[in-house]
From TrEMBL:
The keyword Transferase applies. One of its GO terms (molecular function) is transferase activity. This is Carboxyl transferase. SUPFAM superfamilies: ClpP/crotonase.
Length: 479
C-alpha cells in the first residue's frame, strides 16, 4: 500500500479491512477541479477519499474510505466521481463495494457541481442494488443527504462513540436538542430506526465486515459463499427444544461449527435475522423470538410471542436481500398472533403484507420449522406452506391452528361449564391444533424430534439445491 493510503485514519481503515498488502489505489492523483472561493489554494490530496480494490480472505472487494483530514472529508465533484467510478468497476467485475464513511457533508464551495456528482452516486447504488452486495460503515459524521448512502446499502455498521448518522441533526429537530434525544447516535440508529446492523469499536466493525463478506455471494450470479464443512452433518442438537423462545441460540446450534452472523441485532429483537452455514452453504435465517438470553443464561428481554410491525419489516427486508442474491431461507416459526396495540396498528397491516409478499415472492429454496406456536394469519405470513415454503417441518410439541385450543373452546362453547370447556379444548387441540392434524392435511411435511433439526434442514436444502421456479411475467411487484 502506498504512503497516501497509509498516512491517515482513512488509509489505516483500508489496511485493517483488507488482506495484508492487497490494496491497490485507483485515482490517487485526483484533486479538486473547482477554482471558486479560492479552492485552487487548498490542498485536496485524492480529493478527500481513498478508492481502490483488494481482497478479503481471497475475495475481491472494492473500497472507498473518506479522509476527514482533507476539508473534513466533505464531498466535492471529483470526490463523488471517484466513488461512482468504483461502483462502475465493481458492477463489471461482480464484486462487493465497501464504503467507510467519515464526512462533513457536501462541499459548499462546489455547490451544484458537488450535488450533481453526488446524485450520480445515488444512481450507481440503485443500479447496484440486488446485483452486488453493498456495505457501509460510519466512523465519523454521516449527515444530510449522505445518510441516504447507508440506507441504500444492504448492510450498515456504526462506530459506537464517534459515529453520527442523521438526515436532520438532533438540534435541528423542533422540540428536541441533543441532550434530550441524540437521534444521530449509534444507539438510536441501531435500536430505534433499524438502519444499523451492528455497532462497536472500529476494530470490531472492520472484523465484522470481513466475516460478512466471507459469508455472502460476490454478486447475484456467481456464488462463492460456500466453505468446506468440518461439522457432522447428522450432529444431534441436544437440548435445542429449550431454545424455542430465544431462537438465536437455536440457530447457533443448528449451524456448522455454531457460526451465526446476526443482522440488525439491536432492532426489533422479537425477530431474529442473520446468516448461518449448513453443510458449508450460506443460508439466511429468520426466526420469531419471545425471550433474549445473555451468555450467562439470564433473560435480558421478554416479548409476548406476537408478530410486531418492526419485526415484520426487519424480516421482510432480509428475505428480499436473500432472494436477490440466491441465498436459501430457513425460518423458525413460533408466533402466537399479531401484536395488539394502538401504536402497532399504524403500520402492522402494511408491514405484515410486506413480510407475506417477501416470502411468497422469493424463489430461492425455502424451509420452515415450526418450533412452538403457529397461530392464525401471523403463522401464515411466516413462511408457511400456503405462501410457498418448499418444506415444512414441525417439532413434536408444536401447536398449529387458528388460536390457543382453550380460547377456541371458550368461544365455540360460550356459557358451558369449566368441565365441558376443558374437554372440548382437549378435543380441539387433538383435531385442529396438533402437528399431526396439520401433517394429515399436508400443511406439514414431517414431524421431527427437535434434536434432529440440523440433519433434516441440511437434507432439505441439499434436495432443493437445483430448485427452479417460473413466475408470472411482470416488471416488479408493488407491495
Amino acid at each position: 500500500m502506498d504512503n497516501l493510503a497509509t498516512g491517515s485514519a482513512a488509509g489505516n481503515r483500508i489496511e485493517s479491512l483488507l488482506d495484508a498488502g492487497s490494496f491497490v489505489e485507483i485515482g490517487g492523483a485526483v484533486t479538486a477541479r473547482s477554482t471558486d472561493f479560492n479552492m485552487q489554494e487548498k490542498e485536496t490530496p485524492a480529493d478527500g477519499v481513498i478508492t481502490g480494490y483488494g481482497v478479503i480472505d481471497g475475495n475481491l472487494a472494492y473500497v472507498y474510505s473518506q479522509d476527514a483530514s482533507v476539508l473534513n472529508g466533505a464531498i466535492g465533484e471529483m470526490h463523488a466521481r471517484k466513488i461512482a467510478n468504483i461502483y462502475d468497476m465493481a458492477m463489471k467485475m461482480g464484486a462487493p463495494v465497501i464504503g467507510l464513511v467519515d464526512c462533513a457533508g457536501l462541499r459548499l464551495q462546489e455547490a451544484t457541481d458537488a450535488l450533481e456528482a453526488f446524485g450520480s452516486l445515488y444512481l450507481k447504488q440503485a443500479m447496484a442494488s440486488g446485483v452486488i452486495p453493498q456495505i457501509t460503515a460510519v466512523f465519523g459524521t454521516c449527515g444530510g443527504g449522505l445518510a441516504v448512502v447507508p440506507a441504500l446499502a444492504d448492510f450498515t455498521f456504526m462506530e459506537s462513540k464517534k459515529g453520527k448518522l442523521f438526515i436532520n441533526s438532533p438540534n435541528a429537530i423542533p422540540g428536541n436538542e441533543i441532550s434530550k434525544c441524540d437521534t444521530s447516535s449509534a444507539q438510536f440508529q441501531s435500536e430505534s430506526t433499524g438502519l444499523v446492523d451492528d455497532i462497536g469499536t472500529e476494530e470490531e466493525i472492520l472484523g465484522s465486515i470481513r466475516s460478512l463478506v466471507c459469508m455472502l455471494p460476490c454478486n447475484n450470479e456467481d456464488d462463492s459463499s460456500y466453505d468446506t464443512c468440518t461439522d457432522d452433518l447428522n450432529r444431534v442438537c441436544t437440548g435445542i427444544e429449550n431454545a424455542s423462545e430465544d431462537t438465536a441460540i437455536a440457530l447457533v446450534q443448528i449451524s456448522d461449527n455454531n457460526i451465526f452472523f446476526e443482522t440488525k441485532k439491536h432492532y426489533a429483537k422479537d425477530m431474529v435475522t442473520g446468516f448461518i452455514r449448513l453443510n458449508g452453504m450460506t443460508v439466511g435465517a429468520v426466526a420469531n423470538r419471545s425471550k433474549v438470553y445473555d451468555s450467562e443464561g439470564e433473560a435480558t428481554a421478554e416479548y409476548d410471542g406476537s408478530l410486531s410491525a418492526d419485526g415484520a419489516k426487519k424480516a421482510a427486508e432480509f428475505v428480499a436481500f436473500c432472494d436477490a442474491f440466491n441465498i436459501p431461507v430457513l425460518s423458525l416459526t413460533n408466533v402466537s398472533g399479531f401484536e395488539a396495540s394502538k401504536c402497532a396498528e399504524k403500520n402492522l397491516a402494511r408491514e405484515a403484507a410486506k413480510l407475506t409478499y417477501a416470502f411468497a415472492d422469493a424463489t430461492v429454496p425455502k424451509v420452515n420449522v415450526i418450533v412452538g406456536k403457529a397461530y392464525g394469519s401471523a403463522y401464515v405470513s411466516m413462511n408457511s406452506k400456503a405462501i410457498g415454503a418448499d418444506m415444512v417441518y414441525a417439532w413434536q410439541d408444536a401447536e398449529i391452528g387458528m388460536m390457543d385450543a382453550a380460547l377456541a373452546a371458550k368461544i365455540m362453547y360460550a356459557g358451558a361449564d369449566a368441565e365441558v370447556i376443558k374437554e372440548k379444548a382437549s378435543e380441539y387441540r387433538e383435531i385442529q391444533s396438533s402437528p399431526l392434524a396439520a401433517a394429515r392435511r399436508g400443511y406439514v411435511d414431517t414431524i421431527i424430534a427437535p434434536e434432529d433439526t440440523r440433519k433434516y434442514v441440511i437434507g432439505a436444502f441439499e434436495m432443493l439445491f437445483t430448485k427452479r421456479e417460473d413466475r408470472p411475467s411482470k416488471k416488479h411487484g408493488t407491495v
